[in-house]
Amino acid sequence: AATRTFSIIKPDATRRNLTGAVTKMLEDAGLRIVASKRIQMTKEQAEGFYAVHKERPFFGELVEFMISGPVVVQVLEGEDAVARNRKVMGATNPADADEGTIRKAYAESIEANSVHGSDSEENAKIEIDYFFKEDEIVG
Ligand code: CMP
Description:
Largest sheet: 4 strands, antiparallel
Structural class: alpha+beta
Number of helices: 7
Order of helices and strands: EHHEHHEHHEH
Bound molecules: adenosine-3',5'-cyclic-monophosphate
Helix content: 25-40%
Strand content: 15-25%
Radius of gyration: 14 Å
């Protein structure tokens, strides 16, 4: 069935004018952009979004990176949207990412890895609600 996932085009990608290129790869993978907005995250917003990682050694740098420039937050819809998006994103570390994935094509490092995508349907719901009101999502 058609489900939803949440995506972020990260500052390394917006900085290099790759919003369209990344979005095209998502669409070509069978995902529909049903909501999209370009925002500058606040520190509080980034810390809240990545709260599950707050004990990790890279948390501080991750938050600083995510507020270093604009991001594009999106809701994606499609068959098995979470898994479909994870497949087209590729591995977190671009060194491990398969050919044909967004991170293989564009990521600069494990931190500046161009995109975020929800890792489960449960987290997708939480992450979508964190950035969007239901009436901003138009299927
Ligand atoms: P993301 O899917 O946005 O979720 C957490 C992010 O932490 C991850 O992508 C990476 O960009 C970032 N990150 C930075 N350093 C590391 C690391 N050593 N291991 C895992 N993730 C990292």
